[in-house]
Design brief:
2 copies of one chain form a homodimer. The first copy, chain A, is mostly helical and 104 residues long. Chain A contains 6 helices and 1 strand, in the order ααααααβ. In chain A, α2 crosses α6 and α4 packs antiparallel against α6. The longest helix of chain A has 14 residues. The radius of gyration of chain A is 16 Å and the shape is globular. The N and C termini of chain A lie far apart (52 Å). The interface between A and B is medium-sized, with 34 and 34 residues.
C-alpha cells in the first residue's frame, strides 16, 4: 500500500507541467491566443487563467481527433504529451481577476 | 446595395444576445461554470470574459453533437438559438483582467 501510494505521487509529479517550458512552447500558440492567453482573433478563446486540467484534456482531444478544429488539429499534432502539460501549466498560471458583474 | 446592407445590419442586431437574459439563463450553468463564469469543478472551463462568438459557436457545436461532452450535450439540448446568443452575451460581458505574466 505504501509503495503503491508513493508510485501514484511520483507519477503525478512526473506528469506535472513546467510553466516556464510552456511559455516557450506558447510561441506556437501566440498568433491566435497570445503568449498572455488573451485571444487575438475572433475564433480563438482566451486561455489566460483557464483550468489546467481542462486545457490538457482539450489539447489531447484535438490531438486524438476527438475534438475537431482545423487550426488546432494541425497544432496539436506537433505537441508531445509533455508539451501539452507544459502549455496547460503556462496558461493556467496566468492570474486573471473578475470585477463587479455587469448590471449589479 | 443600400437595402442589402441595411438587411445585414438588422439581421446582426436581431441575433445579438441579451446579456441580462443570459444572466438569468445562466442558472442552468452555474453549478459548473458559476454565474460569474469562474469554474466550480475541475472539468469545467472558466467562461468569464470569453470571446462571445467562440462561446456561441461551442454551444451550437454541443447542441448539434459536433463537439462531445456528456454534461454539455444534456444542457445544450435545452437551449434555443436565442438562449445561446444570450448566454454568450452574458459570459463575454464579464470583464476580466490579466496581471503581470508569471516569471516576468
Amino acid at each position: 500500500m505504501g509503495a503503491a501510494a508513493l508510485f501514484v505521487i511520483a507519477s503525478g509529479n512526473a506528469r506535472a507541467g513546467d510553466a516556464k517550458a510552456g511559455r516557450a512552447k506558447a510561441q506556437l500558440c501566440q498568433a491566435c491566443h497570445g503568449v498572455d492567453g488573451l485571444s487575438k482573433v475572433p475564433d480563438a478563446p482566451n486561455l489566460a487563467g483557464q483550468v489546467e486540467g481542462y486545457l490538457a484534456t482539450q489539447l489531447r482531444a484535438f490531438k486524438s481527433g476527438a475534438r475537431k478544429s482545423e487550426a488546432m488539429t494541425l497544432v496539436a499534432a506537433q505537441l508531445s504529451d509533455q508539451d501539452i502539460d507544459n502549455l496547460a501549466a503556462w496558461y493556467s498560471s496566468i492570474e486573471i481577476s473578475v470585477g463587479k458583474l455587469p448590471g449589479g
